[in-house]
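SAMPLE LOG
Freezer: B-3
Tube label: C17
Construct: single chain, 463 aa
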Amino acid sequence: MKAYWDVLTIGEDSGPAVIVDFGKKWRLLFWTKRWSGASQWDLGDVWVTNEWLETNSIEDRRWFEPMMDKEAKYSRLDILESGDARAVIRWHYACCNPEYKIFNGNTFADEYYTVYPDGIAVRKLVAWPGNESDFGGNPNFWETGEFILSLPKADLSRKEMEKWLEENLETNRVFTFHNLEGEEISYSWPMPSPRRALCSDHPEIADWDAYIMSLHLKDRPDPFVVVPHNKALFPYRPSEWPPLFMHSPGCHKDHPQFLLWDGKTNLFCSYGFCYTPFERPPRPTVWLMLAGATEDSSSAHLAKLASSWLNPAHIRIEDFGRQNDVALKKRWGNPANILYIGFKYSERAYTFNGEMTGKRLKFTMIPSLPYAKKPVQQMFREMISQGLTFKEISERVTEKFGRVEVVNPIFKIENWCSNTVNVKVNGESLNPDEYKWQTSQGNLIIWMNMNIKEDTTFEITPQ
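STRUCTURE (predicted):
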Protein backbone atom coordinates (compact mmCIF):
# COMPACT_ATOMS: atom_id res chain seq x y z
CA MET A 1 0.00 0.00 0.00
CA LYS A 2 1.27 3.48 -0.80
CA ALA A 3 0.20 7.07 -1.45
CA TYR A 4 2.15 9.05 -4.01
CA TRP A 5 2.15 12.06 -6.30
CA ASP A 6 1.81 11.57 -10.05
CA VAL A 7 0.91 13.55 -13.16
CA LEU A 8 -2.43 12.32 -14.48
CA THR A 9 -3.32 12.98 -18.11
CA ILE A 10 -6.79 12.33 -19.52
CA GLY A 11 -7.54 13.76 -22.94
CA GLU A 12 -6.34 17.33 -23.06
CA ASP A 13 -6.26 17.69 -19.27
CA SER A 14 -3.02 17.05 -17.42
CA GLY A 15 -2.13 17.90 -13.85
CA PRO A 16 -0.79 16.66 -10.52
CA ALA A 17 -2.71 14.01 -8.62
CA VAL A 18 -2.44 12.16 -5.33
CA ILE A 19 -3.07 8.43 -5.74
CA VAL A 20 -3.66 5.91 -2.95
CA ASP A 21 -3.08 2.33 -4.13
CA PHE A 22 -3.96 -0.54 -1.77
CA GLY A 23 -3.80 -3.41 -4.25
CA LYS A 24 -7.55 -3.76 -4.78
CA LYS A 25 -9.75 -3.50 -7.87
CA TRP A 26 -10.32 0.11 -6.90
CA ARG A 27 -8.13 2.95 -5.70
CA LEU A 28 -8.59 6.43 -4.26
CA LEU A 29 -7.28 9.47 -6.09
CA PHE A 30 -7.40 13.26 -5.96
CA TRP A 31 -6.81 15.08 -9.25
CA THR A 32 -6.47 18.85 -9.40
CA LYS A 33 -8.05 18.83 -12.87
CA ARG A 34 -11.24 17.19 -11.65
CA TRP A 35 -13.32 19.40 -9.36
CA SER A 36 -10.33 21.12 -7.79
CA GLY A 37 -8.89 17.91 -6.34
CA ALA A 38 -12.00 16.23 -4.98
CA SER A 39 -11.76 12.60 -3.86
CA GLN A 40 -12.52 9.98 -6.52
CA TRP A 41 -13.03 6.26 -6.00
CA ASP A 42 -11.47 4.95 -9.21
CA LEU A 43 -13.27 1.74 -10.24
CA GLY A 44 -11.46 1.47 -13.57
CA ASP A 45 -13.40 3.30 -16.27
CA VAL A 46 -15.75 4.79 -13.67
CA TRP A 47 -15.11 7.34 -10.93
CA VAL A 48 -17.44 8.02 -8.01
CA THR A 49 -16.90 10.99 -5.73
CA ASN A 50 -18.04 11.52 -2.14
CA GLU A 51 -18.38 15.21 -3.05
CA TRP A 52 -17.58 18.08 -0.63
CA LEU A 53 -18.94 20.95 1.46
CA GLU A 54 -21.44 23.00 -0.55
CA THR A 55 -23.88 25.88 -0.03
CA ASN A 56 -25.76 28.63 -1.85
CA SER A 57 -28.06 31.52 -0.95
CA ILE A 58 -31.26 33.21 -1.99
CA GLU A 59 -29.13 36.06 -3.39
CA ASP A 60 -26.95 33.76 -5.51
CA ARG A 61 -28.60 30.54 -6.57
CA ARG A 62 -25.38 29.26 -8.10
CA TRP A 63 -23.47 26.89 -5.88
CA PHE A 64 -20.52 27.85 -3.71
CA GLU A 65 -18.29 24.79 -3.87
CA PRO A 66 -14.82 23.63 -4.99
CA MET A 67 -16.27 22.50 -8.33
CA MET A 68 -16.42 26.20 -9.25
CA ASP A 69 -12.69 26.57 -8.57
CA LYS A 70 -11.68 25.59 -12.12
CA GLU A 71 -8.08 26.70 -11.65
CA ALA A 72 -7.71 25.03 -8.24
CA LYS A 73 -6.87 28.48 -6.95
CA TYR A 74 -7.78 27.67 -3.35
CA SER A 75 -7.16 23.91 -3.40
CA ARG A 76 -4.24 22.18 -1.70
CA LEU A 77 -3.43 18.48 -1.39
CA ASP A 78 -1.02 16.97 1.14
CA ILE A 79 0.13 13.42 1.85
CA LEU A 80 0.34 13.37 5.64
CA GLU A 81 1.16 9.65 5.98
CA SER A 82 2.07 6.88 3.57
CA GLY A 83 3.10 3.36 4.51
CA ASP A 84 2.19 -0.32 4.48
CA ALA A 85 -0.51 0.05 7.14
CA ARG A 86 -2.24 3.27 6.12
CA ALA A 87 -2.20 6.55 4.21
CA VAL A 88 -3.62 9.91 5.29
CA ILE A 89 -4.50 12.56 2.70
CA ARG A 90 -5.60 16.13 3.40
CA TRP A 91 -7.56 18.21 0.90
CA HIS A 92 -8.05 21.92 1.63
CA TYR A 93 -10.48 24.00 -0.47
CA ALA A 94 -12.82 26.99 -0.54
CA CYS A 95 -16.54 27.25 -1.22
CA CYS A 96 -16.49 29.80 -4.03
CA ASN A 97 -18.68 30.81 -6.97
CA PRO A 98 -17.51 30.83 -10.63
CA GLU A 99 -15.99 34.30 -10.09
CA TYR A 100 -13.82 32.85 -7.29
CA LYS A 101 -15.65 34.86 -4.64
CA ILE A 102 -15.88 32.92 -1.38
CA PHE A 103 -19.15 32.56 0.51
CA ASN A 104 -19.25 34.96 3.48
CA GLY A 105 -15.64 35.83 2.68
CA ASN A 106 -13.80 32.86 4.18
CA THR A 107 -15.79 29.61 3.92
CA PHE A 108 -13.16 26.86 3.72
CA ALA A 109 -13.03 23.15 4.44
CA ASP A 110 -10.42 20.51 5.20
CA GLU A 111 -11.01 16.86 4.37
CA TYR A 112 -8.89 14.05 5.78
CA TYR A 113 -9.01 10.57 4.25
CA THR A 114 -7.45 7.90 6.47
CA VAL A 115 -7.16 4.84 4.23
CA TYR A 116 -6.24 1.23 5.10
CA PRO A 117 -5.21 -1.86 3.08
CA ASP A 118 -8.81 -3.14 2.97
CA GLY A 119 -9.64 -0.20 0.66
CA ILE A 120 -11.83 1.52 3.24
CA ALA A 121 -11.34 5.09 4.44
CA VAL A 122 -12.65 7.33 7.17
CA ARG A 123 -13.62 10.65 5.61
CA LYS A 124 -13.27 13.48 8.11
CA LEU A 125 -14.78 16.75 6.87
CA VAL A 126 -13.90 19.86 8.86
CA ALA A 127 -15.98 22.89 7.83
CA TRP A 128 -15.09 26.51 8.48
CA PRO A 129 -18.27 28.45 7.56
CA GLY A 130 -17.46 32.03 6.67
CA ASN A 131 -17.67 34.92 9.15
CA GLU A 132 -15.56 37.55 7.39
CA SER A 133 -18.18 39.32 5.25
CA ASP A 134 -21.83 39.27 4.23
CA PHE A 135 -21.07 38.21 0.66
CA GLY A 136 -23.73 35.74 -0.45
CA GLY A 137 -26.03 36.56 2.45
CA ASN A 138 -27.61 33.77 4.48
CA PRO A 139 -27.18 30.15 3.38
CA ASN A 140 -30.02 28.06 1.98
CA PHE A 141 -28.46 24.71 2.90
CA TRP A 142 -25.22 22.92 3.75
CA GLU A 143 -24.40 19.69 1.97
CA THR A 144 -21.58 17.40 3.00
CA GLY A 145 -21.82 14.71 0.34
CA GLU A 146 -23.32 13.39 -2.87
CA PHE A 147 -23.03 10.25 -4.95
CA ILE A 148 -21.78 11.48 -8.34
CA LEU A 149 -20.64 9.02 -11.01
CA SER A 150 -18.40 10.18 -13.87
CA LEU A 151 -16.60 8.68 -16.85
CA PRO A 152 -13.22 10.41 -16.92
CA LYS A 153 -12.25 9.16 -20.38
CA ALA A 154 -15.57 9.71 -22.13
CA ASP A 155 -17.33 12.91 -23.14
CA LEU A 156 -20.92 11.79 -23.57
CA SER A 157 -24.09 13.68 -24.31
CA ARG A 158 -26.99 13.40 -21.87
CA LYS A 159 -28.66 10.70 -23.99
CA GLU A 160 -25.40 8.80 -24.38
CA MET A 161 -24.83 8.98 -20.63
CA GLU A 162 -28.31 7.66 -19.93
CA LYS A 163 -27.66 4.74 -22.27
CA TRP A 164 -24.33 3.97 -20.60
CA LEU A 165 -25.95 4.07 -17.16
CA GLU A 166 -28.74 1.74 -18.24
CA GLU A 167 -26.20 -0.74 -19.61
CA ASN A 168 -23.74 -0.62 -16.70
CA LEU A 169 -25.87 -0.16 -13.59
CA GLU A 170 -27.69 -2.89 -11.72
CA THR A 171 -30.94 -1.21 -12.75
CA ASN A 172 -33.19 -3.42 -10.58
CA ARG A 173 -31.15 -2.53 -7.48
CA VAL A 174 -29.20 0.57 -8.40
CA PHE A 175 -29.07 2.41 -5.08
CA THR A 176 -29.68 1.06 -1.59
CA PHE A 177 -29.92 2.23 1.98
CA HIS A 178 -29.23 -0.14 4.89
CA ASN A 179 -29.12 0.11 8.66
CA LEU A 180 -27.02 -1.88 11.12
CA GLU A 181 -29.73 -4.53 11.44
CA GLY A 182 -29.50 -5.32 7.73
CA GLU A 183 -32.83 -3.75 6.78
CA GLU A 184 -32.72 -2.47 3.20
CA ILE A 185 -34.48 0.18 1.13
CA SER A 186 -33.79 -0.46 -2.55
CA TYR A 187 -34.34 1.73 -5.62
CA SER A 188 -34.39 0.76 -9.27
CA TRP A 189 -33.14 2.97 -12.09
CA PRO A 190 -34.24 5.59 -12.90
CA MET A 191 -34.90 6.67 -9.35
CA PRO A 192 -37.86 8.79 -8.14
CA SER A 193 -38.35 12.00 -10.11
CA PRO A 194 -38.56 14.83 -9.31
CA ARG A 195 -36.04 14.69 -6.50
CA ARG A 196 -37.57 13.84 -3.15
CA ALA A 197 -36.71 13.19 0.47
CA LEU A 198 -35.99 9.58 1.44
CA CYS A 199 -38.10 10.01 4.57
CA SER A 200 -41.13 11.06 2.50
CA ASP A 201 -41.64 7.42 1.58
CA HIS A 202 -39.79 5.86 4.50
CA PRO A 203 -40.38 7.76 7.76
CA GLU A 204 -39.08 4.70 9.62
CA ILE A 205 -35.50 5.85 8.91
CA ALA A 206 -35.90 8.21 11.86
CA ASP A 207 -35.34 5.15 14.07
CA TRP A 208 -32.34 3.81 12.14
CA ASP A 209 -28.98 3.67 13.91
CA ALA A 210 -26.95 4.40 10.75
CA TYR A 211 -27.40 4.97 7.02
CA ILE A 212 -25.34 2.78 4.68
CA MET A 213 -25.63 3.98 1.09
CA SER A 214 -24.35 1.95 -1.83
CA LEU A 215 -24.34 2.38 -5.62
CA HIS A 216 -24.51 -0.90 -7.55
CA LEU A 217 -22.67 -1.38 -10.85
CA LYS A 218 -22.21 -4.35 -13.14
CA ASP A 219 -18.81 -6.10 -13.13
CA ARG A 220 -17.24 -3.50 -10.84
CA PRO A 221 -16.85 -2.94 -7.09
CA ASP A 222 -19.71 -1.03 -5.49
CA PRO A 223 -18.89 2.28 -3.73
CA PHE A 224 -20.51 2.92 -0.36
CA VAL A 225 -20.77 5.54 2.38
CA VAL A 226 -21.79 5.11 6.03
CA VAL A 227 -23.44 8.08 7.75
CA PRO A 228 -23.88 7.60 11.54
CA HIS A 229 -27.17 8.58 13.17
CA ASN A 230 -25.17 10.23 15.92
CA LYS A 231 -24.73 13.99 16.19
CA ALA A 232 -21.39 13.56 17.94
CA LEU A 233 -20.05 11.90 14.77
CA PHE A 234 -22.28 13.46 12.11
CA PRO A 235 -23.88 16.77 13.18
CA TYR A 236 -27.19 17.62 11.52
CA ARG A 237 -30.37 19.69 11.86
CA PRO A 238 -33.77 18.08 11.26
CA SER A 239 -35.23 19.59 8.11
CA GLU A 240 -38.23 21.85 7.66
CA TRP A 241 -38.23 21.07 3.91
CA PRO A 242 -39.12 24.60 2.77
CA PRO A 243 -41.16 25.07 -0.45
CA LEU A 244 -38.23 27.09 -1.82
CA PHE A 245 -36.55 23.90 -3.00
CA MET A 246 -39.74 22.19 -4.24
CA HIS A 247 -38.76 19.03 -2.40
CA SER A 248 -41.38 16.54 -1.40
CA PRO A 249 -42.40 16.84 2.27
CA GLY A 250 -40.22 15.08 4.78
CA CYS A 251 -41.29 13.29 7.90
CA HIS A 252 -40.01 16.19 10.07
CA LYS A 253 -38.44 13.82 12.58
CA ASP A 254 -35.00 13.89 14.13
CA HIS A 255 -32.62 12.31 11.61
CA PRO A 256 -30.06 13.30 8.95
CA GLN A 257 -31.51 14.32 5.61
CA PHE A 258 -31.17 12.46 2.32
CA LEU A 259 -32.34 13.75 -1.06
CA LEU A 260 -32.94 11.26 -3.85
CA TRP A 261 -32.16 12.19 -7.46
CA ASP A 262 -33.24 10.33 -10.59
CA GLY A 263 -29.72 9.16 -11.49
CA LYS A 264 -30.17 10.02 -15.16
CA THR A 265 -27.70 12.85 -14.76
CA ASN A 266 -25.31 10.50 -12.85
CA LEU A 267 -26.30 12.01 -9.45
CA PHE A 268 -28.10 9.60 -7.13
CA CYS A 269 -28.26 11.02 -3.61
CA SER A 270 -27.18 14.07 -1.60
CA TYR A 271 -26.98 14.54 2.16
CA GLY A 272 -25.69 17.05 4.68
CA PHE A 273 -26.03 19.22 7.73
CA CYS A 274 -29.38 20.82 6.81
CA TYR A 275 -31.64 21.99 4.01
CA THR A 276 -33.22 24.81 6.01
CA PRO A 277 -32.55 28.48 5.12
CA PHE A 278 -30.39 30.51 7.52
CA GLU A 279 -29.21 27.50 9.51
CA ARG A 280 -25.45 27.21 9.59
CA PRO A 281 -23.00 24.90 11.38
CA PRO A 282 -20.57 26.36 13.93
CA ARG A 283 -17.02 27.23 12.95
CA PRO A 284 -15.54 24.62 12.94
CA THR A 285 -17.81 21.59 12.59
CA VAL A 286 -16.55 18.03 12.04
CA TRP A 287 -18.38 15.23 10.22
CA LEU A 288 -17.18 11.62 10.05
CA MET A 289 -18.18 9.12 7.36
CA LEU A 290 -16.92 5.69 6.39
CA ALA A 291 -16.30 5.41 2.64
CA GLY A 292 -14.87 2.95 0.17
CA ALA A 293 -15.86 0.22 -2.25
CA THR A 294 -16.61 -3.47 -1.89
CA GLU A 295 -17.08 -6.59 -3.98
CA ASP A 296 -19.77 -7.74 -1.54
CA SER A 297 -22.49 -5.10 -1.28
CA SER A 298 -25.02 -7.31 0.45
CA SER A 299 -26.86 -5.70 3.34
CA ALA A 300 -25.33 -8.23 5.76
CA HIS A 301 -21.74 -7.48 4.73
CA LEU A 302 -22.15 -3.70 4.72
CA ALA A 303 -23.91 -3.83 8.08
CA LYS A 304 -20.96 -5.82 9.49
CA LEU A 305 -18.46 -3.20 8.26
CA ALA A 306 -20.50 -0.31 9.64
CA SER A 307 -21.20 -2.05 12.96
CA SER A 308 -17.50 -2.73 13.47
CA TRP A 309 -16.77 1.00 13.10
CA LEU A 310 -19.70 2.29 15.14
CA ASN A 311 -19.58 -0.34 17.92
CA PRO A 312 -15.92 -0.54 18.97
CA ALA A 313 -14.77 -3.37 21.18
CA HIS A 314 -13.70 -2.94 24.80
CA ILE A 315 -9.99 -3.00 25.62
CA ARG A 316 -8.56 -4.41 28.84
CA ILE A 317 -4.82 -3.90 29.34
CA GLU A 318 -3.21 -7.02 30.80
CA ASP A 319 0.47 -6.16 31.00
CA PHE A 320 2.65 -3.15 30.28
CA GLY A 321 6.06 -4.76 30.76
CA ARG A 322 7.55 -2.83 33.68
CA GLN A 323 8.65 -5.17 36.43
CA ASN A 324 9.22 -2.46 39.06
CA ASP A 325 5.61 -1.24 38.97
CA VAL A 326 4.02 -4.47 40.18
CA ALA A 327 2.67 -2.76 43.30
CA LEU A 328 0.99 -0.04 41.24
CA LYS A 329 -0.46 -2.60 38.88
CA LYS A 330 -1.81 -4.65 41.80
CA ARG A 331 -3.35 -1.58 43.39
CA TRP A 332 -4.93 0.03 40.33
CA GLY A 333 -5.52 -3.02 38.14
CA ASN A 334 -4.02 -1.35 35.05
CA PRO A 335 -0.64 0.09 34.08
CA ALA A 336 0.57 3.37 35.48
CA ASN A 337 2.49 4.37 32.39
CA ILE A 338 0.42 3.01 29.49
CA LEU A 339 -3.06 4.31 28.86
CA TYR A 340 -5.79 3.12 26.53
CA ILE A 341 -7.07 6.45 25.20
CA GLY A 342 -10.04 4.98 23.40
CA PHE A 343 -11.32 4.29 19.91
CA LYS A 344 -10.66 7.11 17.44
CA TYR A 345 -13.61 7.00 15.05
CA SER A 346 -11.81 9.46 12.75
CA GLU A 347 -9.03 6.88 12.25
CA ARG A 348 -10.81 3.55 12.95
CA ALA A 349 -8.02 3.06 15.49
CA TYR A 350 -7.83 1.68 19.03
CA THR A 351 -5.35 4.15 20.50
CA PHE A 352 -2.81 3.76 23.30
CA ASN A 353 -0.47 6.34 24.79
CA GLY A 354 2.58 6.07 26.97
CA GLU A 355 6.34 5.71 27.06
CA MET A 356 6.95 2.44 25.19
CA THR A 357 10.75 2.28 25.03
CA GLY A 358 11.83 -1.35 25.44
CA LYS A 359 8.43 -2.46 26.77
CA ARG A 360 5.61 -4.67 25.65
CA LEU A 361 1.89 -3.99 25.50
CA LYS A 362 -0.50 -6.82 26.25
CA PHE A 363 -4.26 -6.33 26.13
CA THR A 364 -7.48 -8.21 25.52
CA MET A 365 -10.02 -7.11 22.92
CA ILE A 366 -13.59 -7.85 23.99
CA PRO A 367 -16.15 -7.42 21.17
CA SER A 368 -19.06 -5.26 22.27
CA LEU A 369 -22.69 -6.22 22.64
CA PRO A 370 -25.02 -5.13 19.78
CA TYR A 371 -26.55 -2.34 21.85
CA ALA A 372 -28.11 -0.65 18.80
CA LYS A 373 -30.47 -3.54 18.05
CA LYS A 374 -33.99 -2.92 19.32
CA PRO A 375 -34.54 -6.51 20.57
CA VAL A 376 -31.31 -6.19 22.60
CA GLN A 377 -32.52 -2.93 24.14
CA GLN A 378 -35.84 -4.55 25.06
CA MET A 379 -34.05 -7.54 26.59
CA PHE A 380 -31.85 -5.20 28.64
CA ARG A 381 -34.89 -3.36 30.01
CA GLU A 382 -36.65 -6.56 30.95
CA MET A 383 -33.65 -8.08 32.72
CA ILE A 384 -32.80 -4.83 34.54
CA SER A 385 -36.37 -4.77 35.90
CA GLN A 386 -35.77 -8.34 37.12
CA GLY A 387 -32.75 -7.17 39.12
CA LEU A 388 -30.13 -9.12 37.17
CA THR A 389 -26.50 -8.01 37.36
CA PHE A 390 -24.75 -6.56 34.31
CA LYS A 391 -22.62 -9.70 34.05
CA GLU A 392 -25.70 -11.90 34.00
CA ILE A 393 -27.36 -9.65 31.42
CA SER A 394 -24.25 -9.64 29.22
CA GLU A 395 -23.98 -13.42 29.30
CA ARG A 396 -27.63 -13.88 28.29
CA VAL A 397 -27.49 -11.23 25.55
CA THR A 398 -24.28 -12.77 24.18
CA GLU A 399 -25.84 -16.22 24.16
CA LYS A 400 -28.88 -15.00 22.19
CA PHE A 401 -27.48 -12.28 19.92
CA GLY A 402 -23.71 -12.77 19.91
CA ARG A 403 -21.26 -9.86 19.85
CA VAL A 404 -20.27 -7.29 17.24
CA GLU A 405 -17.57 -8.73 14.99
CA VAL A 406 -14.50 -6.48 14.73
CA VAL A 407 -13.41 -6.17 11.09
CA ASN A 408 -9.68 -5.61 10.45
CA PRO A 409 -8.89 -3.88 13.77
CA ILE A 410 -6.34 -1.08 13.76
CA PHE A 411 -4.08 -0.25 16.69
CA LYS A 412 -2.29 3.05 17.14
CA ILE A 413 0.41 3.17 19.83
CA GLU A 414 1.74 6.65 20.45
CA ASN A 415 5.39 7.14 21.48
CA TRP A 416 6.44 3.72 20.23
CA CYS A 417 10.17 4.61 20.10
CA SER A 418 11.25 1.53 18.11
CA ASN A 419 11.75 0.60 14.47
CA THR A 420 10.70 -3.02 14.96
CA VAL A 421 7.56 -4.82 16.09
CA ASN A 422 6.32 -8.32 16.82
CA VAL A 423 2.64 -9.20 17.23
CA LYS A 424 1.21 -12.21 19.03
CA VAL A 425 -2.45 -13.20 19.13
CA ASN A 426 -3.48 -15.49 21.97
CA GLY A 427 0.19 -16.29 22.54
CA GLU A 428 1.01 -17.18 18.91
CA SER A 429 3.30 -15.04 16.74
CA LEU A 430 1.65 -13.91 13.52
CA ASN A 431 2.90 -14.35 9.98
CA PRO A 432 3.81 -11.18 8.06
CA ASP A 433 0.73 -11.50 5.81
CA GLU A 434 -1.58 -11.36 8.84
CA TYR A 435 -0.86 -7.72 9.63
CA LYS A 436 0.70 -4.56 8.22
CA TRP A 437 2.57 -1.98 10.27
CA GLN A 438 4.42 1.30 9.99
CA THR A 439 5.84 4.01 12.22
CA SER A 440 4.98 7.65 11.64
CA GLN A 441 5.94 10.64 13.81
CA GLY A 442 6.83 8.33 16.68
CA ASN A 443 3.55 6.39 16.47
CA LEU A 444 3.10 2.73 15.61
CA ILE A 445 0.19 1.86 13.31
CA ILE A 446 -0.88 -1.79 12.98
CA TRP A 447 -3.62 -3.00 10.60
CA MET A 448 -4.78 -6.53 11.28
CA ASN A 449 -5.85 -8.80 8.42
CA MET A 450 -8.38 -10.67 10.55
CA ASN A 451 -11.81 -10.38 12.13
CA ILE A 452 -12.35 -10.73 15.88
CA LYS A 453 -15.50 -12.51 17.10
CA GLU A 454 -14.55 -13.40 20.69
CA ASP A 455 -12.24 -12.24 23.47
CA THR A 456 -8.75 -12.11 21.98
CA THR A 457 -5.42 -11.24 23.60
CA PHE A 458 -2.79 -9.25 21.71
CA GLU A 459 0.84 -8.82 22.69
CA ILE A 460 2.85 -6.13 20.89
CA THR A 461 6.59 -5.84 21.51
CA PRO A 462 9.73 -4.59 19.76
CA GLN A 463 11.51 -7.53 18.12
